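Render N-acetyltransferase in 3D.
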Amino acid sequence: MSPAQHQTAQAAIIPLDNVDPAMVENLLDRAFEPERHRRTAYKVREGMDWLPALSFAALDSADLLVGTIQCWPVALTDEEGRAHPMIMVGPVAVLPERQNEGFGQALMSASLSCIDDRAPLPQVLIGDPEYYGRFWGFSNEGTGGWSLPGPFEQHRLLVRCANRAVLPAAGVLGPWLR
């Protein structure tokens, strides 16, 4: 069964581009408040379109939209000006009244399982190191010299990469302007 057809006990995971964008925006507003656009993560991916192959929606047993995940093309620009492409994971959004039912985990697992193992780009997110480390191997090891275009808590900047040694020790994370 492909990740796009993944079923949880209570949800169907479908491609996000099959969902009305207005419904997605409403869910994001409910999960994160309408002021979410001011957050630093939005500045990191500003001007980029989300990646359809890695972005999903969770529908409950009544086919109601209860969660979404979006992934974005971003890059870490090192001190020499070289861009190192990455995938920014998130937001992972679940309706407040439906949190702690496994929708977020199902969405994360579906998204990350679609990354091509033959040439995986590093994945980056801003989140809880213990949670994302325990389930998917994200870590803040090596991100201490990275900066973002806005305020953030350094210990919450996480990366998942097969070989962290290839990542620059310092740089600025932002949109991937190829």
